[in-house]
C-alpha cells in the first residue's frame, strides 16, 4: 500500500504539469478582422495593445483625448496591407474625454459608425493619484472616479446594447492589482479600481447567458508614463517617474498578455510578480496581517516624506 503512494503522487504531479503546459499552449480564438476598440491608445499600455492587436489583424478604433498623439500611433501602424500570412488594417480614431461622461454616448455612436459594430472593447484609459486622504480635495476623489470608473462604465453601457443585439462581443477592462488590494496614499486610484472590479464582475455574471465574455485584467507596475501623469491631492500633476513604475513590467509583455486573455476569453487575470500576488491572497486569507503591513508601509512612506 505504502509503496504505491509515491508513484501515485509523481503521476498526479505529472498530469497536473501536463495540464498546465496544455493550458499555456492554448491559442484561443483569432482576432483577425475583429473590430477592437482601445481607450487610452495614445500612450503606455494602450499604445502597446494597439501595436499587438494591429499585428494580429484586428480592425482598430483607437480612442484618446489628444487627436495628434492618436494620429502618431495611426502613422506608426500604417495603412491596410496584406502579406502571405496576415491582413492588417489602418486604424480609425475617435477623440473624446472619458471624464466628461455626458460626451461618452456621442463618442460611442461615432465608434459604432466606424465598422457598424464592436467585437472587443478594451477599457484601458486611466489615471493614477498620489496623496494622503487628509490633504486630498473631494474634487480630486471625484475626478479620478470619473476617468477610471464612470467614463469606462458609460462607454461599456453605451456599446453593450449593440453587442447584446448581435449576441456577440467581448468587454475587457484594465484594472490593477490595486483593484484587489488597497495600498496607502492611493485612495482615489485604489477606490476607482475596486469599483471597476466590482462592476465588471457583476456584468460578467449578467452577460453569461448572452455569451458576452467579460475580462478583468489586473496588472502590477508597468513601465509607462502613469506616475508622471498621476494627479495629486490638490489636483496638480505629480510629474515624477516613480522607481516602482520605472522598474515595472515591459508594456509589450503586458499587451501580449492582454491579447492572450482576449483570445482565451479569460475571466480574471492578475499580471504581477510574487509580492503583489501574495498580497492579494493575504488580504483575503489573513487580513489582520495585511492591514498591519499596510499600516507600517504608510508610516515608512510618511517618514520618508518628512525627511
Ligand atoms: N502603469 C502602471 O503601473 C499600471 C497601469 N495600470 C492601468 O493601465 C491603464 C493604462 O495606463 P498606462 O498606460 O500605464 O498610463 P499612461 O498614463 O501612459 O496612459 C494613460 C492613457 O489613458 C488616457 N486617458 C487618461 N485620462 C483620460 C481621459 N479623461 N479620457 C480619455 N483618455 C484618458 C491617456 O490619453 P491622453 O492623455 O492622450 O488623452 C493615455 O492614453 C490604466 O487603466 C492604468 O490604471 C494598471 C496597473 C499598473
Ligand atoms: C513573497 C512574499 C511577499 C509578502 C507579501 C507582503 C505584502 C507586500 C505588499 C505588496 C504591495 C504591492 C502593491 C502593488 C501595487 C501595484 O502593483 O499597483 C499597480 C498599479 O496600478 C500601479 O499604480 P501606481 O499609480 O500606484 O504606480
From TrEMBL:
GO terms for molecular function: oxidoreductase activity. Keywords: Membrane, Oxidoreductase, Transmembrane, Transmembrane helix. The chain crosses the membrane at residues 6-23. Residues 34-225 form the Ketoreductase domain. It comes from the Eukaryota. Signal peptide: none annotated. The keyword Oxidoreductase applies. The keyword Membrane applies. GO terms for cellular component: membrane. GO terms for biological process: lipid metabolic process. SMART domains: PKS_KR. InterPro entries: KR_dom (IPR057326), NAD(P)-bd_dom_sf (IPR036291), Sc_DH/Rdtase_CS (IPR020904), SDR_fam (IPR002347). PANTHER family: DEHYDROGENASE/REDUCTASE SDR FAMILY MEMBER 7B, DEHYDROGENASE_REDUCTASE SDR FAMILY MEMBER 7B. Putative oxidoreductase. Belongs to the short-chain dehydrogenases/reductases (SDR) family. This is Dehydrogenase/reductase SDR family member 7B. It comes from Poecilia formosa.
